[in-house]
Write a structure and sequence with these properties.
With about 280 residues, the chain is of the alpha+beta class. The chain has three domains: about 120 residues, Muramoyl-pentapeptide Carboxypeptidase, domain 2 (2-Layer Sandwich); about 50 residues; about 40 residues, no CATH class. The protein has twelve helices and six strands. A six-stranded antiparallel sheet has the order 1-2-6-3-4-5, covered by helices on one side. Helix 10 crosses helix 12.
């Protein structure tokens, strides 16, 4: 297999953390028996121009699957914004965790069938197994700093607070309290806005945080799904069982055209049918 010095020779002047992320992924893939044979970094596209994007060229589907899954499994530590593989994008910000079909761009490279594309938020590199940063100030002190403007705004504020080890939602709640007193409970519509911005995390973490704050997770997620036009995978799996999507290659084509991952749907079909 190629060595990292050669593979990374065209990364260009990417951020130091991006280069370390590229190195980590390269050696993780190699240890698992997969090859990243070349990497691209700086470029003229909006994402590559930031110095925080990578194109990781792979030999085959198994290699791409491994790279994509490794990045996603380590998304918090690697400060992932989104990852693209085989014409599907999975974001930590827009509809977090949902693997969405992208438009057809005309060829295998443009559709990301020969490489994995990844974009990361700004911040320092955190190596595997590194201890999470420990907060050094009280939530109230940090909230006062936020009100002074010390932590920036929007997603930048969230990234910086999280990177420093603080609970963004706890700090923001304290900011609200300092400004207007204890805030009234938020509506499902307000919470759906926050979920779609990524304020409440992903998966089980999102569920736990919403429920701990006293909100109905299922109602909030239903509103998010309604806005995004997302039909639950279980509903689609039941339609497959009824025969609504045909069989074999035709089923895969029709599911993909509708924006679904055929393998994800098939797993749900198998679960409903009790197939292991």
């Amino acid at each position: 297999m190629a060595d990292f010095a050669y593979v990374s020779s065209r990364l260009g002047n990417v951020a130091a953390a991006t280069r370390k992320i590229a190195e980590e992924i390269f050696y993780a893939a190699q240890a698992a028996g997969h090859e990243i044979w070349f990497m691209w970094g700086m470029g003229t596209s909006p994402e590559h121009a930031t110095g925080r994007a990578l194109d990781l060229m792979v030999r085959n589907e198994a290699g791409g699957d491994f790279v994509r899954d490794y990045i996603w499994a380590n998304r918090a530590r690697l400060r992932l914004h989104h990852v693209i593989w085989e014409q599907h994008i999975t974001s930590t910000v827009v509809n977090p965790g949902y693997r969405r079909l992208m438009e057809d761009r005309g060829n295998a490279t443009a559709n990301h069938y020969d490489h994995v594309h990844t974009l990361h938020f700004a911040g320092d590199y955190q190596a595997p197994g590194a201890s999470a940063p420990q907060p050094s100030k009280s939530v109230t002190d940090v909230a006062r700093e936020v009100l002074r403007g010390d932590w920036g705004n929007g997603q930048d504020r969230k990234n910086r607070l999280t990177a420093a080890g603080y609970d963004y939602n706890a700090v923001q709640a304290e900011v609200n309290r300092l400004i207007v007193g204890t805030p009234a409970p938020k509506t499902v519509h307000q919470l759906a806005d926050e979920v779609m911005r990524g304020d409440w995390g992903n998966g089980q973490d999102r569920r736990n945080r919403l429920q701990s704050a006293g909100y109905d997770y299922d109602a909030v997620q239903a509103e998010v799904n309604r806005r995004l036009g997302v039909v639950g995978v279980t509903t689609v799996a039941r339609a497959v069982i009824r025969g609504d999507y045909g069989n074999g290659a035709e089923r895969r084509r029709r599911l993909s055209a509708a924006g679904w991952d055929p393998d994800h749907v098939q797993r749900e079909v198998n679960r409903l049918l009790g197939i292991r």
